Every structure is written in structure tokens, then in C-alpha cells.
Amino acid sequence: MSVTHLLYLHGFRSSPQSAKARIVAARVAADFPGVIWWCPQLPPSPRDAMALIDRGTADWPAARMAVVGSSLGGFYATCVAERRGCRAVVLNPAVDPARDLAAHVGEQTAWHAPEERFFFRPGYVDELRALQTGPITRPERYFAVIAKGDELLDWREMTARYPGATIRLLEGGDHALSDFDAHLGDVLDFLNLATE
User: Fold this and answer.
1) Cβ 3 vs Cβ 87: under 8 Å
2) Residues spanned by the domain of 81
3) Between helices 46-56 and 122-131, what is the axis angle to 10°?
4) Can you give the pTM of this predicted structure?
5) Which site in 128, 137, 157, 161 is 20 to 30 Å from 115, CA atoms measured?
6) What angle do CA 101, 169, 53 make, to 5 degrees?
């Protein structure tokens, strides 16, 4: 069944202005104009972020929706896919953000608007821990693009999180997936977006 609703979830300190989000948005608008596209600005609180996602997709048909998530957005995308039973593409996904982001408690700047600041509170680490899901239940629903050269996350840990999933393991690369354009075709093929 083709996908008619596509959700994109950005990473920590990122936004809908991220390069990957803009690339996917432009391609969906050009080639799949009938697909409902939503890339919300996620609040710093993980609980609030998931509440926003749940509200925004509440009336989306699970069988015809998919989610793409990058880094922390990949963690959220996995939560969404496990809750809704939908297809997911994860791009250098965070596996244990409660552990990794504990060191980032305090004031942060937005990546695409350094003048914008937000506070990452200690309680947000607990919120991330509460969102952690167990092993993925249907690996065939997942496509992971993972770079061995990711300077922030361990590719071995990312790969181990998605056993049985379709995994594109890149030699080299970086956390931002600077060569994302080269993988977009395969991502879109996996998503199986509706053409009309």
C-alpha cells in the first residue's frame, strides 16, 4: 500500500531548515504532490515533542503513513513506528539519547539560527528514558542509513539497534550525511510514496 502521509523529524538543536529536511520536502513537493508532508519544529522537551507528533498525526492512517527521522529524530521516528506500526527511515539514528544528551543539559543554541537559544533541562533526560522502546518488532518496516564516519554516534550501536532491517552502511560519511542526495532515491523507493 502506497504512503500518502509523510512525517519528517529533525535532530537535536536542528529544525525543519536542516539540509536533509529541505531536500526531502522539495522532492516530495515536486514528484509526489498528493502526499501530505509535515515537518514540525520539535520542542526541546521530548515529552512535548512526542505529544505534538501524536496530535499532528492522530488522524493519519497508520497503513498509509511513514516517518523519516534524523539523529534524535530517528529515535522519535522509531517510537512512532513502534506505536503506529508504520514504515520508518532512520538516518544516523540516536539509540540512547538519554545517555548521550545528559552531557548537554543547559543552554543550547539552535543549529540553523544561532541567535535562538533554548534550555535543555535535566528532566528532559528522564523524558527520553521514558520514551525508550524495546527491540524493534517488525524489522521489515525499517530502512536505516548509517555512516561509519559519524563523529557523534557509534555506527556499531546504530546497526545493532535495527537487526533484520534494511541497512545502508556507508564507509566514511559524517553525522550530517552530507552525501544524502546520493541516497534519496533509495529512501523514496523504500517509502513507496503515492504518485497521485
Assistant:
1) yes
2) 5-191
3) 50
4) 0.95
5) 128
6) 45
The neighbour count for residue 20, using CB atoms within 10 Å, is 26
Q: What is the pLDDT of residue 12?
A: 84
Task: Check if the beta carbon of residue 1 is closer than 8 Å to that of residue 61.
Answer: no
Which residue, among 79, 54, 84, 90, has the nearest Cα to 167 in the 3D structure?
Answer: 90
Q: Give the E-state strand segments of 36-141 in sequence order.
A: 36-38, 65-70, 87-91, 106-110, 113-120
Q: Please give the tally of structural domains in the chain.
A: 1
Q: Poorest-confidence range of 82-91, 99-108, 119-128, 185-194?
A: 99-108
- Residue 52: give its domain's CATH number: 3.40.50.1820
pLDDT of residue 110: 67
What's the confidence (pLDDT) of residue 47?
96
Angle at 104 between CA 99 and CA 107, to 5 degrees: 150
Q: What pLDDT is attached to residue 111?
A: 66
Nearest Cα to Cα of residue 28 among 20, 37, 19: 37
Residues 82 and 62: beta-carbon distance below 8 Å = no
DSSP E strands: which ranges in 94-193?
A: 106-110, 113-120, 142-147, 166-170
Cα–Cα distance for residue pair 91/68, rounded to 1 Å: 8
